[in-house]
Amino acid sequence: MRASLIQIAVDPDEPVADRRARAARLVREERGAADLVVLPELWPVGAFAADLFQPESEPLHGPTYKSMAAAARDAEVWLHAGSFVEAAGGALHNTSLVFSPDGELAASYRKIHRFGFDKGEAVLMAAGEDLVTFDLPHLTVGVGTCYDLRFPELFRGLVDAGAEAFVVPAGWPARRRAHWRLLAQARAVENQAYVLACGTAGSHAGVEQAGHSLVVDPWGEIVAEAGPGEEVLRAVLDPAKPAAIREEFPALKDRVLGVAAPRRTRVR
């Protein structure tokens, strides 16, 4: 399976509508070159541009949805369209959309772990509640977003739901680039699954982005890695590899916590 991660640059001087059109063009350019295309987190506005979250928010079936659905259909690819600011029921969500090659919505995911502690996304957006997977031909994919990468229990849950690969769009800051690579490899190794981690280039509200999107195989080896600027990172995945690694080195079968509720021991 051929995957293309579009590490789009976010320029604060580029209007959102123009960047949406540019992203759609970049997706269409992958026609014939990819089976799966991935965009980063909050690329329409920038992950750190909190002042734009409310004014640039959209309903689920808004401009980003329509643009990305058309791009997936025209390119004839599975498209993880990164995420956008969704307005729903009086709340905002950091929402990812996945489209099939016919342009139909295959999955949507509202980010569970919101970054910012006591500001930004953490206070402006509501948390999602559902673990989400979608099925490609011969591969089940779990969905996470950026800060989710720091919470291994989410990915364990996705493995229990059948995931053999994870797609993680992000707006990861350059000052924590080493964590980005380390965590992507850790999630791959511990779950014996592919990790497709797609970040942004450029700057979000003055926060330099890490770039360095990467594809990690189920043994933890980096298959491909981008540089710091805008580029399209391409890699070939073997859908049989997760099962083969899990059979060769069956560590997941030795899990204890999470398989059954641990017994409590009373101190007498």
Automatic annotation (TrEMBL):
Keywords tagged on the record: Hydrolase
InterPro entries (UniProt xref): C-N_Hydrolase (IPR003010), C-N_Hydrolase_sf (IPR036526), UPF0012_CS (IPR001110)
Protein origin, superkingdom: Bacteria
One Pfam family linked to the record: CN_hydrolase
PROSITE patterns the UniProt entry points to: CN_HYDROLASE (PS50263), UPF0012 (PS01227)
CDD domains: nitrilase_5
Protein name: Carbon-nitrogen family hydrolase
Species classification: Bacteria, Bacillati, Actinomycetota, Actinomycetes, Kitasatosporales
